Amino acid sequence: MKKRIRELLFVILTAVCAVAVVLLGKGYIRSVQVQENLPVEKAVTVYTSGKDYVSFEELDPDFVHAVVAVEDKRYFERSGPDFIAMCRAIYKNLLYKRPVEGGSTIPQQIAKNLWFVGTERGLDEKIAEVFLMGKLQDKYTKEELLALYANMNYYGDGYWGIGQASRGYYSTGPDQLSVAQAAMLAGIPNAPGIYQLSTGHDLAVQRQRKVLQRMLAEGYLTEAEYQEALNEAV
């Protein structure tokens, strides 16, 4: 009986590995295809060459902490993909036979924004993003990639990039944000059509509070700083 169970488990494991190899192969091919049409350096230059581009050194530390806390808490600790989140996402995507969960890291989101915005994204594209993420991490530092992420995002109300958003919403530079302002701007790109302040202020405040909670949980804020940010009129 035990032998038959071992044999069954071996067959299942072999089948899973075979499926994984096929999926990885298709994802790799997809990543090569998109790079042929738009190489990494050219894709990144579209954003970094703009007059409103804000470097990492020009970002307020509270904004950096807010983004990392809510989007990719292991960003500065991890050297590659978030395999735990990815495996959970792939499992659910396979279960429902369609992309229902992300699991994306900041570099993966950059890859999506550079190559797959406005396109149908299936499992091939999700896996391709991992290979593309590796290319990005080979060429750019974590600080450069986080700045790229902050600059490529849409913040609603016509504001593209953290520079436009900080000046447009708060009449201040991206290096002079309060904790509450940083948390607000870090939360908007998740769904700018919903959270833009002109039409979705109340929902944006709810999102802001979630960001502040994550900052507190990750140790970026003390309890006193957290309460002060909650009480700030934004």
CATH architecture: Orthogonal Bundle
Mean pLDDT: 86
**Can you identify the CATH superfamily?**
Biosynthetic peptidoglycan transglycosylase-like
Helix content: 55-70%
Number of helices: 12
Structural class: mainly alpha
Largest sheet: none
Q: How many distinct domains? A: 1
Unreliable stretches: none
Which radius of gyration do the C-alpha atoms yield? 20 Å
The backbone outline, from C-alpha atoms, is globular
**Number of DSSP-assigned strands:** 0
H and E order: HHHHHHHHHHHH
CATH C-level class? Mainly Alpha
Structure characterization notes:
The chain is mainly alpha-helical. It has a single domain, classed as Orthogonal Bundle (Penicillin binding protein transpeptidase fold), CATH 1.10.3810. The chain is 67% helix and 0% strand. The protein is globular, with a radius of gyration of 20 Å. The N and C termini lie far apart (66 Å). The model has no long low-confidence stretch (mean pLDDT 86).
What would you say about this model in short?
With 234 residues, this protein is mostly helical.
